[in-house]
Amino acid sequence: MADIHAPSVGLPLRFILTGLAALVAGVAWLVARPIVLSGYHYSPEVVAVTHLFVLGWISSVVMGAIYQLVPVALETRLHSQRLAQWHFVLHGIGFVGMVAMFYIWNMKQVGHFASALAVGVGLFVYNLARTLARIPRWNVVAAGIAASLGWLTVTVLAGLYLAAAKCWNFSPFNPLAQMHAHAHLGGLGFFVMMIIAVSYKLVPMFTLSEVRSASRARWSLVLLNTGLAGVFVGILVSSRWKLGPALIVAAGLAVYGREITAILRSRKRRSLDWGLMYFLTAIALLVPVATLGVVLAWPGLPTTLRTAQLESVYGFLALIGVVTFAILGMLYKVVPFLVWYASYSKAIGRHKVPALADLYSPALQAVGYWLFLGGLLVASMATTLSHESGARTGCALLFASIVLFVVNLFKVLAHLIRPRLEPLVLTPAVAST
Amino acid sequence: MTAAPNEETVRETLRQVVDPELDCNIVDLGLIYGIAIDGSKVTVTMTLTTPGCPMHESIAWGVKRALLNLEAVQEAEVQVVWDPPWTPARMTEHGRACTGIVAR
């Protein structure tokens, strides 16, 4: 993913390593304080942990990867690497400050740090918009990324509105409804939309397949965008009609699932590596998440403790099950690429260089995969039942999986310091010249 | 004076260039479309498994380096083309066996 189109590998790696640090801290927090999952979700601590995940982990990694991926996948150049570097600084200051201030519930300071973060997001969106503006071929991948950037902008504006409304108490909307609406903009609009958009490029590329129906791919985006706009308004005004747009979102995800299945069925590379297994499992987890979303949008659903816990499971499964699992899978593809490029691309043709799969341990990937799935299952059940020690057990499994992921990633990064170059083995035909 | 390289020599040399994602050399992957030799200049026409392949530059660079490793080659040119598109039918049996890619 690093070639003449892409920025230097240091830029995405900086975002990715920052994100990983936030992920480790976030999951460790859940192990130490499982009440974040087993208790009611509208509390300063839950809001702080959630922003550690969505800004510190997910946004950092997604933004870093997108800086690398967009220029290469869409065959253009990043508009400005300097703006991206400023974005990194503002993003780091913004999310660390926001998490700390959410924790002590100082909304005025949240607003200040959120403003720094918002300026960074502005630079990110501007940089990517200028990059997208000059792509040679506009396609479903570019359209999905553009939509995702649009939703990111709206998410940040809605977040600033929320912080301001807390400080000056002017909003006519229910605070909890505002928070849920904001969360859907970010989770579904930015993260899931981005995952779907890039998957239309990456899944065919890694499986040696192709998008089977461009119109089906387009429809998945149209339905998602339309449904999300309705869901946002429906949640914000606490409408009983939000089930309609929720069903449109579910239909969009179903169309997406149908297209991914078709892509996989026509793949020429039969075996799926663990990176893809992580990613595709995350995609499959959209089924329970979408089902829960439809159930929670049902008109007249009673507001009970169990309903509130189901909302927590919905958010947990979306952010950790779908988004985090998908990102871990893609990082198993992206980071080896970046490291390989930095260490070996100039040695190809002169030395025997390792393949990407030689940079990490598939055994650690496999163990990490099952630990993650087990952790998700246990933590989700415990959250539903408000079972604190069960939530801790589930999160401990997730933590173990993350540790294995970090160990594996450092095995990859070690090639930056100590590349393994071997002499070329000359075949008899070559040796005779 | 060094004798001009022949096509077989060039082809064997290109087997040293491996696609790091698929862990298979570019000859057995069927990525080489043509080899033109004009004295000490070699021009390789090739493709990649997918347009927008992230390894585009690295592999093209590797091909050039590998060619220039040959004593008889003074100038090397690599042309990456997308038409006709690559299909697994272009792979050798060895390529299919080591990557698990099916011809369809």
Mind sketching the topology for me?
The complex is a heterodimer of chains A (about 425) and B (about 100).
Chain A: H1 10-32, H2 35-38, H3 44-73, H4 81-103, H5 107-133, H6 140-168, H7 175-207, H8 214-236, H9 243-265, H10 274-284, H11 286-296, H12 305-344, E1 351-352, H13 362-384, H14 388-417, E2 422-423, H15 428-431
Helix pairs in contact in A: 1-3, 1-4, 1-14, 3-4, 3-5, 3-7, 3-12, 4-5, 5-6, 6-7, 6-8, 7-8, 7-9, 7-12, 8-9, 9-11, 10-12, 10-13, 11-12, 12-13, 12-14, 13-14
Chain B: H1 7-14, E1 18-19, E2 24-25, E3 32-38, E4 41-46, H2 56-69, E5 75-80, H3 93-99
Parallel strand pairs in B: 4-5
Antiparallel strand pairs in B: 1-2, 3-4
Describe the structure.
The complex is a heterodimer of chains A (433) and B (104). With 433 residues, chain A is mainly α. Chain A has one domain: Up-down Bundle (Cytochrome C Oxidase, Chain A), CATH 1.20.210.10. A two-stranded antiparallel ribbon of chain A has the order 1-2. The longest helix of chain A has 40 residues. The radius of gyration of chain A is 22 Å and the shape is globular. The two termini of chain A are 35 Å apart. The C terminus of chain A is likely disordered. Chain B has 104 residues and is α+β, with helices and mostly antiparallel strands. Chain B has a single domain, classed as GMP Synthetase, Chain A, domain 3 (2-Layer Sandwich), CATH 3.30.300. Chain B contains 3 helices and 5 strands, in the order H-E-E-E-E-H-E-H. In chain B, the strands form 2 sheets. Chain B has a 3-stranded mixed sheet, with helices on one face. Chain B has a two-stranded antiparallel sheet with strand order 1-2. In chain B, helix 2 links the parallel strand 4 and strand 5. Chain B is globular and about 40 Å long. The mean pLDDT of chain B is 89. The interface between A and B is large, with 42 and 41 residues.
